[in-house]
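Hi Prof. W.,

I finally got the Zinc-binding dehydrogenase prediction working! I wasn't sure whether to trim anything, so I left the full sequence exactly as given:
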Amino acid sequence: MRALLIDRTAPARFRLGEVQDPDPAPHQALVRVTATSFNYGEIKHGLEDAPDGTVLGWDAAGVVARPAADGSGPAAGTPVTTLALGGAWAELRAVDTDLIGTVPEGADLGAASTVPVAGATALRALHRAGPVLGRRVLVTGATGGTGRYAVQLARRGGAHVTASTGDPARHGDSLRALGAHEVVEGPEALTSPVDAVIDLVGGPQLVAAHQRLAEGGTLVAVGHAPDLRESFPAGAFFGDGGRHDRTIATFYLPACHGLARDLTWLSAELAAGALDPQITWRGPWTRAAEPAEALLDRRLHGKAVLEIA
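And this is what came out:
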């Protein structure tokens, strides 16, 4: 099969090449990939750390070519979206059936390919934050793929949503269109405490957002830039006054149970038009270097979708 392979001699550090077809385990389905969506983490760290010849990629949507031998998961011919820690940048992918969500017949599989990491991370972060109906929620790093899903889902959940971005003048209108009630340049700009934070940045922004948590509030730490450290001031974790009962929570998406259900629900909402995948680059995988470079340069906001011919 064809795949995008790590090759540090290539200009983009990957190239189209040939590799062996995957051999699924009994609990895995073989999926013929139609589209994959890029994530900053896999581009940044995968291209730096993975050995030559590796097939990267977390998100892929397509059609089940061979169902799992143990009888679990969807049948052959079912359109699906899939999550794993590699193998998405290829024509065929073997995936654990508990990491496969079904997609409505006739839905856009390119859009569905944006669901696994960005959509499911946003959904699980909001679950971890607790009920948001009538509460104030801050989403930092709101212009990224996960941030845009988080803004939409928090608004759907009944929250007053504040979106944080480094350039409110540029991104404010689009974030408000997704459901943000207000757009600010960093947590420091908040004028009142918030009940929950979905932090997709880490570093000083995480610290600043934690300081603005209301009593009983939860900060869910999702994004972590490797060159940014969290240094909390003395007394940051005191429980006096309005700082009583505040929580910092983390989670690891591939370890979460019930992801097949989440991926299926998100795909249905997307197909119904209730969610916007915010695709800002879409094209054939022969042009994969373009969105990869734009992501690394922080010039691409939203999601990039590669169509597998």
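The radius of gyration is 20 Å. Does that look reasonable to you?

Thanks,
D.
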